[in-house]
Design goal:
Elements: E1 2-6, H1 17-31, E2 35-42, E3 49-54, E4 57-63, H2 72-80, H3 82-96, E5 101-106, H4 112-122, E6 126-130, H5 136-140, H6 149-163, E7 167-170, H7 173-182, E8 188-191, H8 207-210, E9 217-222, H9 232-240, E10 247-252, H10 258-268, E11 273-276, H11 281-290, E12 293-297, H12 310-316, E13 321-325, H13 331-337, E14 341-345, H14 349-361, H15 363-380, H16 383-392
Parallel strand pairs: 1-2, 1-5, 2-4, 5-6, 6-7, 7-8, 9-10, 9-12, 10-11, 12-13, 13-14
Antiparallel strand pairs: 3-4
Helix pairs in contact: 1-16, 3-4, 4-6, 9-14, 12-15
Length: about 400
Amino acid sequence: MRICLIIDDYLPESIKVGAKMMHELACELKGQGHEVTVVTPSATLKAKREIGTLDGVTVCRFRSGEIKNVGKVKRAINETLLSFRAWRSLSSYFRAHPHDLIVYYSPSIFFGSLVSRLKRLWKAPSYLILRDLFPQWALDQGLIREGSKIEKYFRFFEKKSYESADTIGLMSQKNLEWFKEKVRQSSKTEVLYNWAANTPVQAETNYKEQLGLSEKTVYFYGGNIGHAQDMMNIVRLAKKMRDEAKAHFVLVGAGDEVELVKEAIQKEELNNMTLMPSVSQEEFKQMLAAFDIGLFTLHKDHSTHNFPGKLLGYMVQELPILGSVNAGNDLKEVVEEAGAGLVSVNGEDEAFYSNALKLLHDEEYRILTGRNGKKLLDAVFSVEAACKQILKTY
């Protein structure tokens, strides 16, 4: 079968979890004997398009404006043009290379018109991997005013994205329930968990030694450092733990709260926290192999229930998970029932602190919890399971 994957971010240019997940999906599909094409934008491309391969997967890149780590207005304009630019650059390729199945990833919400056009051209069904319920989370956090023109603008494209899908896969049962209650559309919906290839790496670089943390237990956060995560939640935890001599926090990534975190580290004189810029996927894996505890946080005002992809990287490397979620998020149940980590509700700072201390002072518990995470990954979050579920809809 010929399968087209569409995403707004891809390897090797990207360091995002979504890009990694989609490449792992592409490689697994190829390994099962399918022909796989990835369609993705590039802000660095000089020509209007570039067609190459990565690990045997055909990658069609089209020229686009910047959509990552740029101002909100510039990003909105460039994302709005994604479908138009993709068709303008690759229409001749699309006509010459029909596919049997279209799989597209959200974010972004702006691929709906491209998918709709390709469905008509190829007479092919489509599957939407829905990971980001935007603009809902922006409304929840007051970044967009309900009923405003900007909300109506984003809702138009969100609706188009949903209408272009024959099947929509949401990342958790709670998200599925929310979606069925709040969103009116005719597409089939189901839970499609995030996934990761179970391929741990051996630490080749001693990052603890490089950072002067050889004697420390390191809490590692890797990914978007943005408003949706509420990074000050981690800053508050580090502040409470500044007297714990063995504890250190390493944050790696980019986003709209980087400067906020930098200022807080300086103002509070948090010598137990290190903030680093984004790194390549390979370097990120090496960091996972070198550190001790996988850390995540979600903003308390979310009404939807995100399942951060970074958790899967923690599970691959058998890192115990320490997390903080919005109230009602079933991620807490999934992680704790598997014995894969400790998760509290954002705002319950004492519980977050208590969980952090438990993982700091009980090394045997850390090891057991990390192993349980690996078992959870194999049982629920494998790339093989994701492939099987997506192909089942064809």
